[in-house]
Amino acid sequence: MTENDDARFPPAPVILLTGANGAVGLGISLRLLHQLSQPNQADVSRCNVGDCSPGTKPACFTVGGYEEEDFQSAYATPNGLTLLLGCRSRTKAEDARATLLRRLKRLFAKESADDQVVSAYTFIDRVTGQVETISFEIYRQRWLANLRIEFLELDLSDLSSIFRAVDVLKQRYGYISHLLLNAGGAAFIGLDWPKAIRGFCRNFLEAVTFPDYMLEGRSTETNDKLGHTWQLNVFGHYLLARLSLPLLSRAPTLGPARIIWTSSLDGMAKFFEPRDYQCLESLQGYKSTKYQVGLLGWAFNSVIQAHEAAAKKEKEMSGPQLVAPAAIHSLVAHPGIVAGNMFAHIIGVVLNYVMLIVFYFTRTILGSPHHVASPYKAGLVWTFASLGASPTDLLHGPSVQADVNQRPFRLGARCDRLGSEYVALEYSDEGQVDQRWFDQAHAEHLLDRCDQLYTVHARKHRIDTITKPT
């Protein structure tokens, strides 16, 4: 807890987001801010899973509206939120912060006064043990007063920057409740226009959903002697997640801590070459690394289990502790297809705007559920996955526990024709083998390589720290 926290309320969550100044990062951040600024979080509802388009009535709706369902997240608290924007540039982080606050104010202006009247925050007073209630207005005022959006210097293409960032987290915050691994990049150099035109003429929907005409150069090596695209998208996040496990296990919030890895719709097995896993020779490095993100995101649960087993053994040796370590879950999510700024430097402002129009046409006229277009709408996946009690509770199914433990799934953002967003569960065994987002053998191979590199660089960092002149 910080010095400004009210002891009656739950402590504030601390959320670290990488890639915070990109379109998807801003969409995730804004949606989290808006949801947690309210006493109740409708995004955690099971109504958000599956197609809730007009003309259908999901089981969780009744004639009078929602049936009784607890929309209040364990992470909602008048003690606010600490949102850490992990960026290389302080200027970009400050610009992102200003943008988020400006857009949040616009969302507040659109809220219904009637909804505010009926919405209240119910909590168990942590001092008296009594059940108490405060109004929407008081909750919002307290939450805004305790909101902190702060810059964390973090360069995933520099491993020493990751070690420094984790040291800052330990010293300044003491814990994190969520680690949202969203940053990404690639060496895109242009478009193959003849191939693009042929693709549009042959199958327009496939061409705008799974584009194969983006030209990508070979990845260079970083100063850490790793493939640049691979380190930025894959290993940098793996190292950050490994180093953050003690911080996540110290999260004092009621729900489990979360690690959510951002994969991509076109991250498929066919783009992965185990012998070139760092994508130094590949001309499809972005798609390969996004496939690898999905592999690691699910396989990382085994790393968490090993960490928890070691922590349990250490606890037994050191005697009983007052506070049990928080559970940690690792999940995989993707935003579907959104209009961002990743290709603006290649196609220019005008074509970037045309691309947005094409996305809306593809969704509205052709009925593509993948063209979410809006980063804010895509952010539903992250609020849904971040703010519920656990993956089991989020998914509300009798066989979900078995799925969570045995059948890999990821959460994908989708929309109906009219733009109503929802969350889709995408399982690893769906579709053709080379188009699947997960393969157990690939996951084990990659996890082994990452673990070896982690051991090497963690040892090197310890040696550098010891020998560094004071």
From TrEMBL:
<keyword id="KW-0752">Steroid biosynthesis</keyword>
<comment type="similarity">
    <text>Belongs to the short-chain dehydrogenases/reductases (SDR) family. ERG27 subfamily.</text>
</comment>
<keyword id="KW-0812">Transmembrane</keyword>
<keyword id="KW-0444">Lipid biosynthesis</keyword>
<feature type="transmembrane region" description="Helical">
    <location>
        <begin position="342"/>
        <end position="361"/>
    </location>
</feature>
<dbReference type="GO" id="GO:0005789">
    <property type="term" value="C:endoplasmic reticulum membrane"/>
</dbReference>
<dbReference type="GO" id="GO:0000253">
    <property type="term" value="F:3-beta-hydroxysteroid 3-dehydrogenase (NADP+) activity"/>
</dbReference>
<dbReference type="InterPro" id="IPR051593">
    <property type="entry name" value="Ergosterol_Biosynth_ERG27"/>
</dbReference>
<dbReference type="GO" id="GO:0005811">
    <property type="term" value="C:lipid droplet"/>
</dbReference>
<dbReference type="GO" id="GO:0005741">
    <property type="term" value="C:mitochondrial outer membrane"/>
</dbReference>
<keyword id="KW-0443">Lipid metabolism</keyword>
<protein>
    <recommendedName>
        <fullName>3-keto-steroid reductase</fullName>
    </recommendedName>
</protein>
<keyword id="KW-0560">Oxidoreductase</keyword>
<keyword id="KW-0472">Membrane</keyword>
<dbReference type="GO" id="GO:0006694">
    <property type="term" value="P:steroid biosynthetic process"/>
</dbReference>
<keyword id="KW-1133">Transmembrane helix</keyword>
<dbReference type="InterPro" id="IPR036291">
    <property type="entry name" value="NAD(P)-bd_dom_sf"/>
</dbReference>
<keyword id="KW-0521">NADP</keyword>
